[in-house]
Amino acid sequence: MEIEALAKKQAADNEINWVTALFMAAFHVGAIAAFFFFTWKALFVAMFLWWVSGSLGIGMSYHRLLTHRGYKTPKWVEYFLALEGGPIFWVATHRIHHQFSDQEGDPHSPRDGKWWSHMGWILTGKSMHHDTTTLARYVPDLAKDKFHVWITKYHYVPMIVLGLVLLAIGGLPFLMWGIFLRTVVGLHATWLVNSATHMWGSRRFSTRDMSTNNPLVAIITFGEGWHNNHHAHPTSARHGLKWYEIDLNWYGIWALKVLGLAKQIKVVKLSELMGKNLPAPNGQLIDAPGALSQTAAGD
After folding, report:
1. Does 53 map to a domain?
2. Dihedral of alpha carbons 264, 268, 269, 275, sign
3. Structural domain that includes position 58
4. What are the pLDDT tens digits along the chain (299 aa)?
5. In three state form, how does the secondary structure of the chain look?
6. Strand partners, 122
7. Is 264 among the domain residues?
8. Is residue 128 part of a domain?
9. How many structural domains comprise the chain?
10. pTM attached to this predicted model
11. Does residue 35 fall inside a structural domain?
């Protein structure tokens, strides 16, 4: 299957993506309805699947492995982690975000509005659904991989299969909590990285964007909230640079290393940065001697 298989009609700049909007609305209604089907088992199933999709799927796979290539795994591990759904549009959007972060061309900057950065960019325009020419430019590595093209085109298959399994095992409570509520919580948690961590938090590095380290977002995204660290050193597989910056996604990558399933892991150490033993081209330490001030960095 070639990248052309992902071609689809793009929405105009201000046009609503009706298919996406309707599915989002249905999932949010389903998430609310889930509270009428509460069981403790369903809650624990949802929490487990939240970790599987949010940590293994988004943080470790889509973000740190496929987008930034912060480490390498055997192909079967890469494909297994990518079963969250279709990675190609996600990876292309995130690479564009890093190229134009909080500048003209950023798909989801708060400078275009808080609501836009959180969810509006998904519902309108073409920011999420790029044409195949753009995909070939920003994700040439994934565009040549038949599995990633296939799983992107049929991204709904894993969700349907999981839904049927949950329904068979635990009935409507498992389905409503494990699919609808869990998906909505996971989506909003991920979107907070686009919105909240570019508005609220602390800055360790004087990057050219508005990225911040936000502990609350880091908790609910398994470590993705250490966003200023990440924008300063995007290829680092570890985002939490101090002991108290809990980064579960990094712990997962470390576990893969212990099992012999991760190699060529790129890691930045804060001690080496403070000692100026490593270059920091994307953002100097704000509190380091001779570092750029936030004002000088354009904040």
Report:
1. yes
2. positive
3. 3-203
4. 677 777 776 666 678 888 889 999 999 999 999 999 999 999 999 999 999 999 999 999 999 999 999 999 999 999 999 998 889 999 999 999 999 999 999 999 999 999 999 999 998 876 667 777 888 899 999 999 999 999 999 999 999 999 999 999 999 999 999 999 999 999 999 999 999 999 999 999 999 999 999 999 999 999 999 999 999 999 999 999 999 999 999 999 999 999 999 999 999 988 888 766 555 556 678 865 444 333 333 33
5. CCHHHHCCCCCCCCCECHHHHHHHHHHHHHHHHHHHHCCHHHHHHHHHHHHHHHHHHHHHHHHHHHHCCCCECCHHHHHHHHHHCCHHHHHHHHHHHHHCCCCCCCCCCHHHCHHHHHHHHHHECCCCCCCHHHHHHHCHHHHCCHHHHHHHHCCHHHHHHHHHHHHHHHHHHHHHHHHHHHHHHHHHHHHHHHCHHHCCCECCECCCCCCCECHHHHHHCCCCCEHHHHHHCCCCCCCCCCCCCCCHHHHHHHHHHHCCCCECCCCCCHHHHHCCCCCCCCCCECCCCCCCCCCCCCC
6. none
7. no
8. yes
9. 1
10. 0.90
11. yes
Joined together, the tokens standing for residue 2 give 């070639």
For residue 257, give both structure tokens.
């290393």
